[in-house]
């Protein structure tokens, strides 16, 4: 997430790149009046009701500044044109959502160790890959399936997911919103059998 | 004496009536002979809904289109209009409609009710209230198709699900729908078993999966099902087990650990769907999950992977190799020229290709160039519909494509950088597009891009005799360009122009032409307010609208006649009714 924000900060600093123009990339406006009018038209025309509900704050700010963000590597004179390329808002919004998801994942995968008592070795998983507690649980179930049989003499699928947070405390996963959880989770621990009983196995 | 004429003939006859003739009289004459099954298509401001409802009370299928096409690209302000409510209310409350419904004999419920069965709307503003009105007023309602609409929520869907007893189709394509909870799926009564098509792919929120599974279980005629992102692979597997008869499937979230049981269940479920011909969705799809569809790929005629950016060239290639019956393919440009070459060698039945940009804002990773298109033109002789976003194009390539594929009906090329010349020769792309219009005599729709002079319009005017819709951006040198088109393209219905040096001269030279057209859009051109006024004065039957957002920014007196404007012109015989502040009707 930090990686994503840095990109937008670069764009906001690069004012020339975000300057609103209807003119073509690389052209200069000779007529000041035209420039004013065009700028005004662009400013109002850009008001796009179809903004993403899940866009984080940096994205919203960047959207307010210019209809379309410029990539930080684009040359400074290349400005964006309203409504170009001709792609429906729906598709553009879908892409922006997907881009921000994948950027975050590529930028810094959140790998944490996962231990299970009695298992001979630990595993590592990337918390960014999962959308919520349900997926995490399913993945952990699969991952540690080979160690489950014969535990405590019964085929017991009950397990609780605990994690070590920033303060070093052992917490039960599921109490806080997912985003908050992945940001504070340092390590995961799977608790089975008598340890899991009473803790509630579904996060 | 007028005998039975199908609706298309009626519309054709209307086309010959000039502005000064009394169309009202003509349509009253025709009223009695329009068969009840006729489909009506209208632009929402071309005529008042009450008149349509009064004139065609027994109509069963209605299509209404609202905002101009360029609204898709944020060129039309949000409050412009295109309201669905007047249409729905007109048909719901028309006394003749109710009477027509009553004559048909209604089972259950006194007073009949309007016989409207199908409603298709595109780029309209639809509210929950009018969906509720629709649901309650049309007892025989069967099919709701909403494309690129907005203004409603899942509550409106709940109303339709609750009250429409004979629902066959709910098709929601790329709408902006406010998520107010997943209950709507539970609103389909147990007695609803008639669903044939359900598409809620554009819904952003969660849905009630259990309710969906039950609904699917009790609708044996379900042919087409398109899920949204909230539906997991596990849920998809369960649904497919209950609906192996599906012909068209839009997956939900297509991500699962490929080493898991869930993945194997998915493979088994898909394998059972022997009738599956068309696939879409693939939200969040990971390449490792693609093998799940290999078993049925050889049956596919339609494939839409344009929302799966994580699936890159090599994975796409592996997949495409299985899909040799494809007729319609929508992909992202990360397929690359190499991938398109594989399409060319594999998909000999290909008719429609759309290549969308995956990285709009920069020179990104693998994209497509003219090479990919040329390869497809060699390999796919049946290609007739193209939408192609690319970073560059050459005249030589376009000429080759034109020679290989003389059957284009739709040709839309978007070179991402405006005014980009042929990189080999630095020339404009006039000759390339000229070759396309010369060779594809059946061309009905054309979108241009790249560096273009008036010459290309001369070719279009000369050769594109069947052309109905033309989209132009950042092209041309002078008024001559636009005039070539207006004078030459006999069948032109819709012309949309942005950022071209066409001015009042072009606008006013051939005003009679607009009588034969459905709409003209010009924005960021050289047309002035004076020119628009002159047009409105010359052609009183035309509705000339000026959209000038400066009046929103600061309220002023009326600007000078030399003020350059955004504009939209379209035919109407009724006038528009209420208009937002920034729209002037001249």
UniProtKB/TrEMBL annotation, chain A:
Indicate where this protein is primarily found.
nucleus
Please give a single GO biological process term from the UniProt record. regulation of DNA-templated transcription
Q: Which organism is it from?
A: Ananas comosus
Provide the protein name: Auxin-responsive protein
Question: What PANTHER family has UniProt attached to this entry?
Answer: AUXIN-RESPONSIVE PROTEIN IAA17, AUXIN-RESPONSIVE PROTEIN IAA24
Keywords, in A-Z order: Auxin signaling pathway, Nucleus, Repressor, Transcription, Transcription regulation
The entry assigns this protein to a family as follows: Belongs to the Aux/IAA family.
- Entries under InterPro entries matching the protein: AUX/IAA_dom, AUX_IAA, PB1-like
| Keyword Cytoplasm appears in the UniProt entry | no
Q: What does this protein do?
A: Aux/IAA proteins are short-lived transcriptional factors that function as repressors of early auxin response genes at low auxin concentrations.
**Is the Repressor keyword given for this protein?**
yes
Show the segment(s) annotated as Disordered: 44-78
What do the Gene Ontology cellular component annotations say? nucleus
Q: Which SUPFAM superfamilies match?
A: CAD & PB1 domains (SSF54277)
**Subunit structure, as described in the record:** Homodimers and heterodimers.
Q: Which Pfam families match?
A: AUX_IAA (PF02309)
What are the PB1 domain coordinates in residue numbering? 109-198
Q: Where in the cell is it found?
A: Nucleus
TrEMBL record, chain B:
Q: One biological process GO term for this chain?
A: auxin-activated signaling pathway
The metabolic or biological pathway listed in the UniProt record of this protein is:
Protein modification; protein ubiquitination
Q: Where in this chain does the record put each Transport inhibitor response domain?
A: 57-94
| SUPFAM superfamilies per UniProt | RNI-like (SSF52047)
Q: Does the keyword Nucleus apply?
A: yes
A single cellular component GO annotation: SCF ubiquitin ligase complex
Alphabetically sorted, this entry's keywords are: Auxin signaling pathway, Nucleus, Ubl conjugation pathway
Q: What are the residue boundaries of the COI1 F-box domain, all occurrences included?
A: 4-29
Assembly mode: Part of a SCF (SKP1-cullin-F-box) protein ligase complex. May interact with auxin and auxin-responsive proteins.
What is the protein name stated in its UniProt record? Transport inhibitor response 1-like protein
Identify the species of origin.
Ananas comosus
């Amino acid at each position: 997430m930090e990686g994503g924000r840095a990109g937008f900060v670069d764009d906001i600093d690069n004012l020339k790149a975000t300057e609103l123009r209807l003119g073509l990339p690389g052209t200069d406006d000779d007529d000041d009046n035209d420039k004013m009018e065009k700028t005004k038209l662009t400013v109002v025309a850009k008001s796009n009701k179809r903004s993403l509900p899940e866009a984080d704050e940096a994205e919203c700010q960047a959207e307010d500044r210019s209809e379309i963000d410029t990539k930080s590597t684009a040359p400074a004179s290349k400005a964006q044109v309203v409504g170009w390329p001709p792609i429906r808002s729906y598709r553009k919004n879908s892409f922006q959502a997907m881009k921000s998801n994948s950027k975050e994942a590529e930028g810094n995968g959140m790998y944490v160790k996962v231990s299970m008592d009695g298992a001979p070795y630990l595993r590592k998983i990337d918390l960014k890959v999962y959308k919520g507690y349900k997926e995490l649980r399913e993945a952990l179930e699969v991952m540690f399936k080979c160690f489950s049989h014969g535990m405590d003499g019964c085929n017991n699928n009950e397990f609780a997911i605990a994690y070590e947070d920033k303060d070093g405390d052992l917490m039960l996963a599921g109490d806080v919103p997912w985003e908050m959880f992945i940001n504070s989770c340092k390590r995961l621990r799977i608790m089975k059998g008598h340890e899991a009983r009473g803790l509630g196995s579904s996060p | 004496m007028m005998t039975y004429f199908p609706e298309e003939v009626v519309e054709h006859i209307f086309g010959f009536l000039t502005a000064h003739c009394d169309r009202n009289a003509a349509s009253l004459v025709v009223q009695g002979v329009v068969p009840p099954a006729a489909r009506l298509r209208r632009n929402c401001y071309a005529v008042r809904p009450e008149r349509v409802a009064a004139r065609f009370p027994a109509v069963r299928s209605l299509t209404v289109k609202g905002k101009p096409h360029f609204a898709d690209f944020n060129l039309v302000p949000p409050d412009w209009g295109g309201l669905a409510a007047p249409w729905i209310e007109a048909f719901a409350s028309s006394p003749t409609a109710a009477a027509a419904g009553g004559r048909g004999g209604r089972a259950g419920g006194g007073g009949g009710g309007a016989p409207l069965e199908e409603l298709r709307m595109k780029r309209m503003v639809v509210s929950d209230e009018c969906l509720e009105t629709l649901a309650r007023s049309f007892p025989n309602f069967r099919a709701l198709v909403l494309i690129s609409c907005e203004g409603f929520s899942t509550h409106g869907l709940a109303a339709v699900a609750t009250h429409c007893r004979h629902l066959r189709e709910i098709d929601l394509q790329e709408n902006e729908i406010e998520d107010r909870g997943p209950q709507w799926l539970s609103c389909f009564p147990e007695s609803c078993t008639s669903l044939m098509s359900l598409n809620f792919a554009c819904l952003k929120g969660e849905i009630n999966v259990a309710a969906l599974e039950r609904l699917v279980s009790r609708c044996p005629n379900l042919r087409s099902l398109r899920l949204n992102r909230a539906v997991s692979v596990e849920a998809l597997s369960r649904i497919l087990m209950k609906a192996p008869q599906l012909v068209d499937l839009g997956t939900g979230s297509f991500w699962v650990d490929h080493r898991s049981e869930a993945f194997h269940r998915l493979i088994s479920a898909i394998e059972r769907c022997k009738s599956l011909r068309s696939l879409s969705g693939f939200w969040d799809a990971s390449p490792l999950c693609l093998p799940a569809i290999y078993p049925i790929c050889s049956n596919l005629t339609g494939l839409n992977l344009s929302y799966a950016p994580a699936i890159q060239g090599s994975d796409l290639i592996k997949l495409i190799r299985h899909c040799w019956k494809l007729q319609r393919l929508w992909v992202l440009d990360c397929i690359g020229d190499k991938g398109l070459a594989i399409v060319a060698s594999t998909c000999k039945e290909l008719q429609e290709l759309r290549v969308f940009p995956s990285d709009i804002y920069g020179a990104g990773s693998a994209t497509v160039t003219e090479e990919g298109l040329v390869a497809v033109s060699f390999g796919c002789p049946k290609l007739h519909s193209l939408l192609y976003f690319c970073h560059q194009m050459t005249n030589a390539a376009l000429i080759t494509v034109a020679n290989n594929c003389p059957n284009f009906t739709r040709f839309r090329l978007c070179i991402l950088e405006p005014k980009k010349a042929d990189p080999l020769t630095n020339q404009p792309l006039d000759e390339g597009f000229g070759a396309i219009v010369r060779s594809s005599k059946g061309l009905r729709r054309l979108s241009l891009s790249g560096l273009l002079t008036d010459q290309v319009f001369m070719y279009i005017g000369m050769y594109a005799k069947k052309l109905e819709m033309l989209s132009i951006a950042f092209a041309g040198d002078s008024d001559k360009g636009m005039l070539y088109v207006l004078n030459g393209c006999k069948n032109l219905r819709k012309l949309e122009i942005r950022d071209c040096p066409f001015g009042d001269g072009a606008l006013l030279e051939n005003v009679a032409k607009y009588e034969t057209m459905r709409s003209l859009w010009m924005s960021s051109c050289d047309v002035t307010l004076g020119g628009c006024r002159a047009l409105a004065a010359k052609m009183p039957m035309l509705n000339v609208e000026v959209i000038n957002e400066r009046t929103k920014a600061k309220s002023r007196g009326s600007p000078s006649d030399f003020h350059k404007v955004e504009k939209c012109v379209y035919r109407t015989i009724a006038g528009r009714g209420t208009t937002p502040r920034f729209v002037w009707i001249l």
